[in-house]
Amino acid sequence: MTSDPARRNDLGAYWMPFTSNRQFKQSPRMIAAAEGMYYTTTDGQKVMDGTAGLWCVNAGHAAPRITEAVQKQVAELDYAPAFQMGHPKAFELASRLAELAPGDLNHVFFTNSGSESVETALKIALAYHKAKGEAGRTRLIGREKGYHGVNFGGIAVGGIVNNRRHFGSLLTGVDHLRHTHDPERNAYSQGEAEHGVELAEDLVRLIDLHGAETIAAVIVEPMAGSAGVILPPKGYLKRLREITREHGILLIFDEVITAYGRLGRAFGADYYGVEPDMITTAKGLTNGVIPMGAVMISSEIHDAFMTGPEHMIELFHGYTYSGNPVACAAALAALDTYREEELFERAAGLEAYWAEAMFSLKGLPHVKDIRCAGLVGAVELEPVAGQPTKRAFDTYLRAWDKGAHLRTTGDIIAMSPPLIIEKSEIDTLIGILAESLSA
Ligand SMILES: Cc1ncc(COP(=O)(O)O)c(C=O)c1O
């Protein structure tokens, strides 16, 4: 450690997010550069990115169009206030996203992250009902094991216990559907799980309990990523759609992971054939290059706000960086890249190969379940007795040493490579995981 404060780098100052800080700082994994499918560490090792960063670098690292667009935009228009003012790229991007989004999700609200997209959608849901004269609809329904970011609304409707238990009573007026994780009945599923459609009726239970007239919205991830790739049971999302529609409740899909090609379609809503009232996104929107999120909103919801005197602000919500010009440039270039390189189609074309490679891990030590959808895969492991999460984390560290970056959640290893991955790289990635599991 140097005594020159300008050059000091003792690792202690940076409190790292969602990280075992003490373990990491004893044995840091530091990235110096990234290109395509690979990171280069500060000591010159090449490591394959098996997770597209944090499920966001869908076009691979340093995609040239995005790099150029960002460089050009910073020089041309670095920032423009987002309130009562606009710049052309924000409108262009919103139009492009509205075109890409399913059905009548024709309006877009910009945020800076997945967490902010979730807060935005929840607030719009509440304000929508109020605007329609149903101010009593204040209850928000999430689902056990759901991940909706880390802000208060998101952790309140979320269902990952450690993300909630340390932070007090959270939002009131929230309830949760039962989760759909059922490895006993649904082990080794792809796309959708065979069993569990009846779990959608849990929403009817909550409606009976609270009264539909008190419920504003239901928010679910169509495929729950962060809790360990939990696939929706066949027919489950369609049934949620029927029940919400019947009772005037909004359905929000949190697609921060599943949007922008992860499942081989623009949105998980397309993959599963169910159209919600709002979709929250972030991550792949800019390929992870610049922080940005976007909420896709139906015309019906949007139009309910466009009443009253025209000089009045219709929605008292927004961020200093909503529609930031550099973020918009990155997102437009990311959408161009996805389209011109046909990356969503590419992901769809690789889905079967990916699933076959993933399922080849069946039978390796401690493997309890494997689940896949699009270019997402998870291996669930039997925990070490009395030491939950250790088995998966040790496997992750072994894989890192062998040159692959994976992700763990509990005793589940999750993978979501950039959509540019080659078949030979799938073989390498799964080969490294196989060796790491067998070690
Ligand atoms: C479904 C879902 N919602 C919200 C978030 C939060 O996104 P961010 O970390 O950008 O706030 C995530 C992040 O993984 C997510 O997977």
UniProtKB/TrEMBL annotation:
- Molecular functions per Gene Ontology: adenosylmethionine-8-amino-7-oxononanoate transaminase activity; beta-alanine:pyruvate transaminase activity; pyridoxal phosphate binding
Keyword annotations for this protein, in alphabetical order, are: Aminotransferase, Pyridoxal phosphate, Pyruvate, Transferase
Enzyme Commission code(s) on record: 2.6.1.18
* Cofactor(s) in the UniProt record: pyridoxal 5'-phosphate
Q: Which InterPro entries match?
A: Aminotrans_3 (IPR005814), Aminotrans_3_PPA_site (IPR049704), PyrdxlP-dep_Trfase (IPR015424), PyrdxlP-dep_Trfase_major (IPR015421), PyrdxlP-dep_Trfase_small (IPR015422)
What's an example GO BP annotation here? biotin biosynthetic process
- Enzyme superclass (EC): transferase
- Identify its protein family: Belongs to the class-III pyridoxal-phosphate-dependent aminotransferase family.
Q: What is the official name of this protein in its record?
A: Omega amino acid--pyruvate aminotransferase
Q: Which organism is it from?
A: Leisingera methylohalidivorans DSM 14336
